[in-house]
Amino acid sequence: MQDAFKSDETARVWPLLAQLQALPDGFDPALRSGLAHALLDGALDPVRDAFEALRERSPEGASEAVGLLRAHAPGLEGFLKSPLLRPPESPRPTVLTVLWNAVRSPQGRGVSSGVFILLFFLLKAVFLPSVREHRSTERPVVVEARRLATRLCSQLEIQDGERLCGTLQQLVVWGASGRCSKVLSEQAEVERQLEAQVAALGADAGLLQEAQRQRLKSAREEFRRALLNVCQG
Questions:
Q1: Rounded-to-integer distance, Cα 120 and Cα 41, Å
Q2: Is the predicted pLDDT of residue 112 greater than 60, yes or no?
Q3: 220 vs 85, 163, 209, 223, CA distance in Å?
Q4: Which value, to the nearest 10 degrees, does the dihedral of the CA atoms of residues 202, 204, 210, 216 take?
Q5: Domain ranges of the chain
Q6: Residue 73: strand, helix, or coil
Q7: Is pLDDT at 109 greater than 50 in this prediction?
Q8: Cα separation of 59 and 182, whole Å?
Q9: How far apart are CA 96 and CA 81, in angstroms?
Q10: How far is CA 121 from CA 3, 34, 98, 108, in A?
Q11: Cβ-based neighbours of 109, under 8 Å, separated by 6 or more
Q12: Residues 215-223: contacts with CB within 8 Å, 24+ apart?
């Protein structure tokens, strides 16, 4: 059984798992969950989204988190960096890859294969409970605002639509973290851009454009109300 884990991939992964476990209890739970995701299956968006949200909510907290990573888990700090800022490197092995390769190895076949599979689910249960907790405790008004931001984004047909869509989601992040003054200051510019698109469709347009115009207006109003509910909740 031990021979099945004797590989370069294993030698790289287990120290990182140990570093993740070594982070203190006060370490940001969403960031910890994102790091666990990255180690488990290589997904980097959760950890980067969590770090960006923490930086927006509390620059001091983000700085403290980086300091804790450098002190307790230096091998994980690279997960926070944008791909554009990271030097080229070989793909990192993941827990899933290591366990799968171990199961497929001659030493890991037969009865012991079940042990490796159970070990995989054990690791998932140990390192990712806060992901489920975070999702289950997110306020319903925040979940609804995210959904309506996505719906409004789908109605946009402007050249810089991706940036505006990102701003819509960022408004929800600010509102959810209690930064409603920031929401109000940024929302004015968002409303200006949305109003410009409504006007561009034209009040005397054909039936198809008029239907699109009404859908955009409806999505805009629903998102505006949802964002207000987030800040008032």
A1: 11
A2: no
A3: 36, 16, 16, 5
A4: 30
A5: 3-135, 138-232
A6: coil
A7: no
A8: 15
A9: 22
A10: 20, 17, 13, 16
A11: 103
A12: 215/155, 216/152, 216/155, 216/156, 219/148, 219/151, 219/152, 219/154, 219/155, 220/152, 220/194, 222/148, 222/151, 222/152, 223/145, 223/148, 223/149, 223/151, 223/152, 223/168
176 SS3 class? helix
Per-residue pLDDT at 119 exceeds 80? no
pLDDT surpasses 80 at 11 = no
Length of the chain: 233
CA atoms within 13 A on the CB side of 81: 12
Distance CA 225, CA 207 (A): 27
Identify which has the larger pLDDT, 65 or 9: 65
Mean pLDDT, the chain, integer: 73
Amino acid 226: pLDDT: 95
* pLDDT of res. 128: 53
Residues 6+ away with beta carbon under 8 Å from 10: 93, 98, 102
Asked if residue 148 lies in contact with residue 157, where contact means CB atoms within 8 angstroms, the answer is no
Q: Which of 93, 112, 144, 89 is nearest to 2 (CA)?
A: 112
Answer yes or no: pTM beyond 0.85.
no
Share of the chain above pLDDT 90, in %: 7
Q: Residue 151's pLDDT is what?
A: 85
Predicted confidence at residue 223, as pLDDT, reads: 95
